[in-house]
Prior knowledge:
alpha/beta, Rossmann fold, 3-stranded parallel β-sheet
Amino acid sequence: MGTFDTNVLGVLLSMKHELRIMLAQGSGSIVNVSSTFGQRGGIGASIYAASKHAVEGMSKAAALETAASGVRVNVVAPGPVDTDLLDQFSGTAERKAALTAGVPMKRLGTPAEIAESIVFIASNKAAFITGAILSVNGGKTAM
């Protein structure tokens, strides 16, 4: 249950403290990170997927609860990203190639692309966006 506790309680406790400050100042933007698994699930990943579903549900509820107060809460849900962690997860070059082939854009995301999406949704350019899940996954959740 370590994965569930980290992913759910970590976000819940962070939002608790962030919201206290943001509500007092009358503005703010929280961006929580989920995963494609939060929208699609995955074989052998039920606890991880459940934890990401929980992050998305908490974020949507918090967005509704705080919208009139000037605080926005959104989620960025990355798909497969070319990182050392993905290399550890995939294990072999063949498995990584198969994972890449399963992305409609036929490539993995980059850490910079995920970071840029977080910067955007946290910024004033996204001032009318709250309660959204921004899927940054090369089309994976469109399948």
